[in-house]
Write the structure tokens for this entry.
Amino acid sequence: MKKYLIISCMVIAGLSILLIIRYLETSKTETVNQDEEVTYQTAPIEEQTLVYIGDEDADNELLFVFDYSCPWCKVWLEEVYPELEDEYIQEGTLKFRTQAMVYLNEASLLLSNFDQNLKNHLPDQYEALFNQVVADVDFEQEKQTDWGTTSYIETLIDDYQLDRELLLQEPEIDAISVTRKYTRELEIDGVPTVFVNGVRIDDLFDIDAITAEIK
């Protein structure tokens, strides 16, 4: 009986050592993986139309994931983007792409649909209208005007003398589906989010952190 007890104890001890070794190896692997820079495929929807601001042949890409109803997205565009535009986009080193998400409200959905229709049908008009929509919103007001409503979009279309039917139709790819796909594939946990060459920028308001990823 004593013999079998000793053998059992030896087996248990051996298994314990193996489990400890396995745990240490796993922990080491996880630590190494955490230190590695993760690169994402920033266009997870194959049939999606991509519109770039800047030289489409530029070696570097910045993807700006945002929600039109997000105040911090506007702050980033006002404070960080101009420096990138002057030094990298206009110079031809960096191309800039946006992805509108539907996270916050009805305006997010309407403007995301409008955004997609612009990219699909009138890509040459995208930059001007994108900038106009961002400029028009005033997040400091306690109560918004008609910004982000269908009426606002219709007025914008008329001001730019564009096709209402074309830009107010349901987009070819459902905006909610696009949002879910990007959220899942790029592991988005909030907006704004910035990727440079597929690398997520942790501090997207740090211009040095962004430019460090530009080749």
Observations:
- Strands lie at 60-66, 94-100, 193-196, 199-200.
